[in-house]
Amino acid sequence: MDKDLYLANAGELAEVIGDYTVAKDYFEQALARDLETYGEDHSNVAKDRSNLGLAWQRLGEYQKAIGYLEQALASDIEIYGENRPTVARDCNNLGRVWQDFVEYQTAVGYYELAPATIVRDPIVAAIRGHNLRVRDYQKAIGYLKQALASNLNFFGEDHPDVVRDLHNLGAVWMKLGRYQTVISYYE
Predict the structure, then answer these.
(1) From the candidate CATH numbers 1.25.40.10, 3.40.50.300, 1.10.600.10, 3.40.50.360, the one assigned to the domain spanning 1-116
(2) Mean pLDDT across the stretch 67-83?
(3) What is the DSSP letter of 60?
(4) Cα angle 79-98-139, degrees, rounded to a multiple of 5
(5) Which own/partner pairs from 40-47 qualify as long-range (CB within 8 Å, at least 24 positions apart)?
(6) What is the distance between the alpha carbons of residues 78 and 123, in angstroms, rounded to a whole number?
(7) Neighbour-count burial of 86, counting CB atoms closer than 10 A to its CB (0-12 exposed, 13-18 middle, 19+ buried)
(8) pLDDT tens across 128-150, in order?
(9) Prediction pTM value
(10) What is the dihedral of CA 177, 178, 183, 186, to 10 degrees?
């Protein structure tokens, strides 16, 4: 097995069991090896930086997390261009860190940076809608309705993704105090 892959996998395993310090250490080693092997603008390096940023987030070190996640975003844009799900994932990760950092306007800005062509993807739309529940309920409702329509069309009424979308819509309407609407989505 490739040692670089081993390091990243070991970091992911440590993250799953909740040992974020060990995960961070493995991700740092993977990043150093991948930088040496591939150079700056390689997908493995961007992934390592993303993993490292998320580990720092879980350790409560938001500035460090933001630094690594911004580097991952810049690399992914350089590698893939702007209209890729990877870029949307990076924007979402940055939004979550800024949200944890209690900088809601900045968080919403990153959530909305996901490329317009990718937003049609029901997963990205659902993520954006779920994350925007923090502050901008009307935008969240729009994104969640978009995800619901797409998932209904693709999967049908009885799929778990449709149930999740209905639940998330109900939760947003609950925050707005529109209880009759909440009931209709929860039913």
Answers:
(1) 1.25.40.10
(2) 91
(3) T
(4) 90
(5) 40/75, 41/75, 41/78, 41/79, 42/75, 42/79, 43/75, 43/76, 43/79, 43/86, 44/4, 44/8, 45/75, 46/71, 46/72, 46/75, 46/76, 46/79, 46/86, 47/8, 47/72
(6) 23
(7) buried
(8) 555 555 556 777 777 778 777 77
(9) 0.66
(10) -70
Closest listed residue to residue 57, CA positions, set 95, 100, 17: 100
Phi/psi of residue 133, each to 5°?
-60, -20
Question: Tokens representing 154?
Answer: 């693709």
Identify which of 153, 160, 99 has the alpha carbon closest to the alpha carbon of residue 128.
Answer: 99
The number of residues making up the chain comes to 187
Q: Write down the CATH superfamily of domain 120-187.
A: Tetratricopeptide repeat domain (1.25.40.10)
C-alpha to C-alpha distances, 129 to 62, 73, 108, 153, nearest whole angstrom: 23, 21, 10, 18
CB 21 within 8 A of CB 40: no
Residue written as token pair 């609950």: 174
Q: Which residue ranges does the chain devote to CATH 1.25.40.10? A: 1-116, 120-187
pLDDT of residue 22: 95
Amino acid letter, residue 50: S
